[in-house]
Every structure is written in structure tokens, then in C-alpha cells.
Amino acid sequence: MAKNLRMAVDIGGTFVDALVFDFDNGTLETKKVSTTPKSPHIGVLDSIKQLVDSSDTVGEFIHGTTLGLNAILERKGAAVGIVTNDGFRDIFELARGNLPFAQMYEFDYEQPENIVPRFQTVGVRCRINNKGEVVEPLDLDQLKEKLKYLVDEVGVDAIAVSFLHSYANSEHEIEARDFITKLYPEIPVSVGSEIAREYREYERTSTAVLDGYIKPVLGRYLLDLQGGLEQNDFQGAFHVMRSGGGAMTVTQAKDAPLLTVLSGPAGGVVGTQYIANETGRTNLISLDIGGTSLDTCVFTDGRPSEVYEADIDHMPVLIPIFDIRTIGAGGGSIAWLDQDLLKVGPQSAGAAPGPACYDRGGNNPTVTDAALVLGYLRPEWFLNGEMSINQSLAEKAIEEMICQPLKMSIEEAASSIFRIMVSKNVAAVREITVERGLDPREFSLVGFGGGGPMFAPMIALELDIPEVLIPPVPALFSAWGMLTSDLEYQNSKTILLPLNQDTVEIIKQQANAIANDAEAIMLAQVEGRIQVVVKKYLSLRYQGQEHTLDVEYLDNSSIDTIEASFNKIHSERYGHQFDEKMEVVSVRSRIIGKVKKPDLSKIIKHEPSSSEVLTTRLFDYSSGEFVEAPVVNRESLIPDQVVGGPMVIKENTAITVIHSSQVAVSDQLGLLTVRGKK
Length: 678
Prior knowledge:
By secondary structure, this protein is of the alpha+beta class. Among the domains are: 5-71 and 219-260, ATPase, nucleotide binding domain (Nucleotidyltransferase, domain 5); 79-208; 487-593, Dna Ligase, domain 1 (2-Layer Sandwich), CATH 3.30.1490; 601-676, no CATH class. Helix content is 31%, strand content 28%. It contains 16 helices and 35 strands. The strands form 9 sheets. Strands 13, 14, 15, 20, 23, 24, 31, 34 and 35 form a 9-stranded mixed beta sheet that branches. The protein has a 6-stranded mixed beta sheet with strand order 3-2-1-4-11-12, with helices on both faces. Helix 10 crosses helix 12 (410-432). The N and C termini lie far apart (54 Å). The model has no long low-confidence stretch (mean pLDDT 90).
């Protein structure tokens, strides 16, 4: 049977989003099912079975998950042992000693408990200097002794290996890895230089530790999922989203799971990139609101903000990653009282028991429960009627937990929950725009996820954002982004060289070397089936600076063109440039395997509406009052048709609410654009 189907599945804390695209006829089928927290692969397999009769018709399966991230945040990862240089056992314990920015003025702040107790760190005699020269060989006899202590006495589940200056020469780390694997083949090993061959010993150690921390968890999950797919006759390519965009093979994901830590939200960023490419918009803000969290990322010049060092629960990771701001604010966020102060999140009701209206035993009021009270949701609309929810239970939870203690009406309580939720979302968007010198009024807001279309118009009103874009199938748009994602492989290496005539040839050689290595890995994956694009970058800074900016490096790049590009980027980012000489900190490469993209415009089917006119009583955010508003199906909106708020625009898995000061218009691409009334 022809395998011209591409399937993508995004698993979140509350729902599993699955879709399959048929390239032969341009059709898209979708499914949204509840997450199964105890065995997450079960929910994924269930969604697949509801979409296709047999997995043997699927040529490619792309998966995104935050399972690794959740393991870190919830402290449910493996027991990790650290192997480092003798005399440097405290490298992970000491960290950098600086306070997180958000806690800078909290004088009673205490760092979270270390995920690796000191007794699980051992030092081994060996040393390589900053030039990559072996000063002292690796003592394998001592390593054997220390491994016996970690495995047999402590009982670690994974081992992280991180030696000083391994970015310059990884010989000892590779030797130690091979030795450990031979002695204890059942113990997974994470090596700092294999994930990030970059300087800064603490950050590289933290990267290796976090990779080891989630490797057994994600490894078991991917094995279970792979086994379930194979039992259903799946024989196609199995890919996993990377945190920095692009997909990689499931084997690579098992070997370096940390690269997938934000693979779910990354799908939404890639989907937003597709919209940027299709519409020519250069300034965008992605707003992904699911059941558990909000993820937002800013786009400038048509590209998402990317970093090569991120922070996960106060621990740094040296991996290419989209610069995504994540907060605990979603449809399942619990409304609660801190004495007499109403708060929303970060705790979530999740999929089990879920919001009170799910009738699964949950009695805490959530944002979803408030949406029912405010008229934004109706039980018969939820998941197109495929999932039953109970409005009376939502009202009861809000009444008992919020209204009675605060002596307010249920409508006041629900609208207060939404205003707090909106303020948290606004703060997250401000953090990635205003605090970086960007004006949100110069951007378009792309709202997706189950709650994005509901909240984005409100956020736009608060920030004076001129337009909101709601893509087709918004509740599954992260999965859509995965469908449109190319294959990618990235690597880097710290070289720390001044940019001048004496070093320009060495820099060229180093850039070409890592690009050639990465290209060989990618070509082995695609086996000549798709086009491969090679991109090279230099991470530069003015001498004396700490942080770097990336400049694309071309075969014909000269010192003058490199300096001009860096000065331009520095001026755009910081408003000024210096006359100081520059230095190259790292060389980077990005290898892209181009895949065929589905056509977004074919998803929305424009069908005339029925004669039945639906209305709902909803809270109008613009006026602050409850009003009677029409309800229309998104499919009934023809291209260029303008409709005025207040109004509810419903579709199978999402609700878009436009308010009295706004209008909405559909276009040929299937985008729904919300703007202010003139």
C-alpha cells in the first residue's frame, strides 16, 4: 500500500493532539484524546488507532513530547552519577553562585535541592589543558573503582561524564564512556562533549547531568511507543522534534534526549514559521495556550528567537533551542486563594482528574470551568461533542472555592479568574518583547493551542497589538508544525580565536570541519531521498564581552563582511556598536533535510451555514459586561467576509472569542484575522 501519509502527534500534560495528512488528496484528519499520565504511550497509540486503520499506511511519524521536561520540573528523573576530574567534585554543586533574575531581591531565597547529591559525584585522575593537550592520562583502574561505588553501592541509574576542557579534546570523555559501557552495558551514559562541545565547565556538566537524568525515562517511553507502533504494522520513519526546530531520528532522541526537552512547544514555533513564510509577515509572537502551560516566542525578521544556552529550573543547558517563555497558565490551571487573594496557577488539574467540569473527581475550579460560566464554552461544543463536560460541576467548584470565601457572585469570580489569566499571559509576552526593547504594537499575535484562540484577542486588547492570527486547526497547531518540519542536525565547537588575518583561515577550516561532520550524519539519515542544505555560523563578540551573537558564515565571507554583519546585528539588538576588535567564540553548523510541506489552505473547507441561528450569553471583555452574542461555525466564513464582535467562532476543537471592539476576517490561506474596529 502506498505510504503517502505523514502523521504527527504532540503529547501534552492534558491532551494528545494527533493529525495525519494525505499528500495524494490533500486531506487532513485530526484527533484529540486525553493524556494517559501513568502510561503516556497508551494515549498516543490510542490517538493513532482512531486516525488510521493500520500504521503500515504511514510513511513518516513525527512526535513531540514534554515528558523529559516534566521529569525535570517534577523531579522524577533517574538517579545520576557524575564522573569528573579528580579535585573538581564540586563543579555541579557550586554552580555559578548567582541568583536567578526573578529572585534577585528575595533575601530569604533558597536554591532548589540539587538533583545530584554530592555523594553521587566522583573524581578520576586525568587532565587535558585548554589547548587540547593531554597533561595526565585517564586512570582506568581508579575509574573502575569509582564506578563500582556508583553502581553497586549507590545504585545510580545513569552516569554523566564531564571533564575539564573536553571542548578542545574529548578523548578522555570518549574513553571513559566506552569503558563504562563495556563494564555496565545496562547503564546509559551521557557525555558532555557529545551534546555540546563548548567551553564553560559548569554549563557543560549541567547539560550532561540533565541528559542523563531524563535518558532512562524518555528511553523507556520511546521504546514502549516504538514497540506499540510496530505491533500495529508501522514500518515508516520515526522522527522526534528537536527543541530548536527540525526533527531527528528516534535513535538520536534516545541517545541525546535533552535535545527534545521542548519538542512539544517547538512544533508550535515551527508552525508559526510556516505562517511567516506564507504571509510575508516578519514580526510575529506565537502564543500557545494548552491545558497546562503557556508557551510564547517572538519572531523578528521572519525568524524565531533562538539561543544556544537555556535555563531549565535554574540549571543551564548548552543546546540549540527556541527562546520560548513558558509559564504555568493553561486551561487546566487551578484558581485558588492565598488567604483572601485570588490566584490562578501554576498548579494544573492536568488530564486526571482534570477540571471540575470533566466529572472525573476533580473539585478545584480551573480556567476551563470559568470559561463555561462566562459563556465562552458550551458543553455541546467541547471537542465537537466527543467529550462530555458538566457545567453545573464547574459552577459548584467556583461557588464553593471562590465565591463563598470572597463573597462575590459566580460571574464576578469567573471574570476575575480570566482577568488574572490574561494578566499572566500579558506579562509573559512583555517579557519577550518590551523587556528586550521590542514594541508589541509592531507585531502580529498568532494564537493557537486549545486556549490560544480564546485568550489571544483579549491579550491583543491589553497590549494594543494590531492583529491576531488564528490558524486552521489551532488546537492541534503544534502537531501541524511538526508535519511541516524539516529534518535537522546541529553541532558546534568552541575555538576562542580573535578575528584577524592570522586566524581567518583557521576559522574557515574549523567551520568547514564541523559542517562536514554534521552533513555526513544527516546524509546517513536521509539516504539521498531529500535535498540537504548546509548552513554555517560564527558566534562572535567584541573582545571583553561575555555574550555572543551569531553571524551566518558563507564560503566567500571575508573579515570585512563578517564584521559588518555583526555590527548590524549588534546595533539592531542593543542600539549601538563598538570599535573594539572581535573574537570568534564558537563555530556552528545547521544541516537541513528539506521535506515536502502540506498545503495549509486546503485544510479549511468553506461551507455555507445552516439557517439555524445560535446565540450565547458571554462576558464581553471590551465593555466588561455580559451580552447576547451570535455563534457561528468557522467553516461558514467565506474568504474576505468581515464579521463584528461580540461573537463566538467555533470549530471542532477550539473556540475563538471576539469582543465588541473587534472584527474578524477569514482569508484564502484559512487564517482567521482579528483586528480592532475602525
